[in-house]
Amino acid sequence: MNTQYDLERCRTFINAHLQSVGKAATTAQSEVPWRVVTISRQTGSGAHSVAEKLATLLQAHAPKDACPWTVFDRNLVAKVLEDHNLPQRLAQFMPEDRISEIADAMDELFGLHPPSWTLVRQTSDTILRLAELGNVILIGRGANVLTRRLDYAFHVRLVGSVEKRVKYIQELQHLSKEAALKLIHREDRGRRRYLQQYFDTNLDDPLLYHLVINTDLVPHDEAARIIADAVLKRV
């Protein structure tokens, strides 16, 4: 993870929006409705790959003066820390596949990080702020639940077989089969726990999503095109 690079992408996105505010009065007649895409995923289903391809496709259909479509995934943590003036060391406590509740409680007791509910609330605040700006693709962290009342948000779930996901993780992160499988089980379990504990929501509920795509059967390029077509048709 290149935190500095990710933070620069965040800043570029925010600066573009700030610059567009000054043009709002003269370009109102040509404005495109705000759009937000959230992607929930099983580990190894290719969410980041699909999201980056999707951003390129959506940007190609955006007005020339529109703010750039930006993916917030790993870089979201850096943005949260910046927004709330938190120390960088807290990044280790913020993944969805975080440590157990017992270990978490012990860390809070000894003052290693703020209470988990505080970190989740601050992350949620940042997600909603980004969604209000529009032209964002938000991966994970309950973004689909947080933005479900926004009529311009489009929600996607990416899934796949364990076998195919293990193979993808092996190739992506150069891990052994055993290590890739362990990573998948840990992250999937952590994400389910995150949604259940903090949002009282079942991550696997298909009714949460406009689209559920099996990336075993649908390549990343095609998945991105399917999502882009669906998003662009919503006015």
Report on this model:
The chain is α/β, with parallel strands linked by helices. The chain has helices at residues 3-21, 24-27, 47-60, 75-83, 101-109, 116-133, 143-146, 162-173, 177-199, 220-233; strands spanning 36-41, 70-72, 136-139, 153-159, 211-214. The chain has a single domain (3-8, 35-233), classed as P-loop containing nucleotide triphosphate hydrolases (Rossmann fold, 3-Layer(aba) Sandwich). It is built from ten helices and five strands, in the order H-H-E-H-E-H-H-H-E-H-E-H-H-E-H. Helix 1 (3-21) crosses helix 4, helix 4 crosses helix 6 and helix 8 (162-173) crosses helix 9 (177-199).
Order of helices and strands: HHEHEHHHEHEHHEH
Look at the structure and give the CATH class.
Answer: Alpha Beta
Radius of gyration equals 18 Å
Overall pLDDT level: 77
Which range best describes the helical content: under 10%, 10-25%, 25-40%, 40-55%, 55-70% or over 70%? 40-55%
Beta-strand percentage range? 5-15%
SS-based class: alpha/beta
Report how far apart the termini are: 35 Å
At the third CATH level, what is the topology name?
Rossmann fold
CATH architecture: 3-Layer(aba) Sandwich
For the largest beta-sheet, the strand count, sense and barrel status come to: 5 strands, parallel
Our count of helices gives 10
How many domains make up the coordinates? 1
Number of strands: 5
Molecular shape: globular
